[in-house]
Amino acid sequence: MASISSQLEELYMNTSRKDMNDTLTDILLAACVTPALMPERLLMEHILLVSVLHYSVGLEVGAHFLETVVRQFDRIYSELDGTDKECDNLVSIIAHLYNFHVVHAVLVFDILKKLVTSFSSKDIELLLLVLKTVGFALRKDDPIALKELISEAQRKASAEGEQFQDQTRIRFMLETMMALKNNDMRKIPGYDPEPVEKLRKLQRTLIHSSAGSSDMKLRVSLDNLLEAERVGRWWIVGSSWSGAPMIDDQGNKTTTPSTKGEQYSAKMLELARKQRMNTDVRRNIFCVLMSSEDFLDAYEKLLRLGLKDQQEREIVHVLMDCCLQEKMFNRFYAVLAEKLCSHDRRFQMTFQFSLWDKFRDLANLSNRSFSNLVQLVTHLLHRKSLSLSILKAIEFGELDKPKVKFLKQILSKLLKETEPEDLVNIFGRISGIPKLGMLREGLKLFISHFLLRTVNTQEPPEQAKVLKDRAEVATKAMEARDAKIKL
């Protein structure tokens, strides 16, 4: 595999990429998509090669191969022949592209939903094949989507199951789904994760460290791929794309993610200029935030910009900047930040670094920005999007007035507005971690000396008691794992 992939890499460097993509895809599909069922190990090794080239040469390799496979699957599926195994092989290829991190779970779920909706005997066979191949990986990546799919399949089975002559297959499918739901690998006959794990280890050694560090999974849906000829390929950098609202707008066919500014009004662009959005990327992000209907609309549009690495980090910087400049705190930014953090850990890290910069600059923030920052941080901590470990950047031994005021507001809001069970989770996240020992001691001292001392004079007796009780819950939660370690 190492020599084959390096030779192909060399060919990619010396030849037209389009010719290479076309030829490689034709050869691989000729080998893997046969009327007979392909041996799984052999299929996996072919897909491993695609994944290595996807990471080392560029994502257009995987994108071209995936699009061709999905188109062929759609064509063969529509004229399905029960005896032919071509469709099974194509579904296995897509499942293994997901296994080797070429494609995101979105596409696999789209295909599973398509199969559940149709629900013929062949669909059930393909469903079982996908779930056996990648079921546990899907459960790990998106348990909620898998749970919904299983519920839908159970509804279909009870509604339409009677019409099938072979009831055992439906029973077997439902048992397999329940085993997945309960994370019970033993109940799936012939399930062996070892070959995939071995090849994944090989994949990690073959992918160069520079490429391996960034996420190159293609987050495309089934509709995205089937509409690619008409709408364009937003997932390939530099490819033209006309977004959903402009599918039938002939004048805008050449709109690309990099020239989004043309869609926005002169008034919006002038506003972006006033807010010192001085690069195309920043302007595009700002205009998306300002023109979105709600946080989900903004979230989808931001992901659709297809930004990578440094450009993607600008999303967080612009969002923070807009949030702090609002006259009144706007929860839109907090909920969008929460959604981004749940989408990928990269956003959590960027928010953490961005907040650290703000902590260092608290003295220079206006009252309005200060208040907005307090509410944003409290929301992210309350929703467990970020851990209390973000406060480790604050030196508790050298607290100045702005930092004392900031910590007081954050901790009192958190303690007053959070139920005791949630406080145990929030404060428990930093317990038992040796590196955060200083932070735990700092927080405990701050709560007892700064927060609770002023409570009796400033708060009504009932609220003071609630605050004291919850402060005790938080302190115990921070000590919980430390006590276990000592025992």
TrEMBL record:
Keyword Nucleus: yes
UniProt keyword terms in alphabetical order: Nucleus
One GO location term (cellular component): nucleolus
Record's keyword annotation contains Nucleus: yes
InterPro entries named among the record's database cross-references: ARM-type_fold, CWC22_splicing_factor, Initiation_fac_eIF4g_MI, MIF4G-like_typ-3
Domain MI span(s) in chain numbering: 280-396
GO molecular function: RNA binding
Pfam families membership: MA3 (PF02847), MIF4G (PF02854)
Cell compartments where the protein resides: Nucleus, Nucleolus
SUPFAM superfamilies attached to this UniProt entry: ARM repeat
A biological-process GO annotation: ribosome biogenesis
Role played: Plays a role in targeting PPP1CA to the nucleolus.
Family per similarity comment: Belongs to the CWC22 family.
Name of the protein: Nucleolar MIF4G domain-containing protein 1
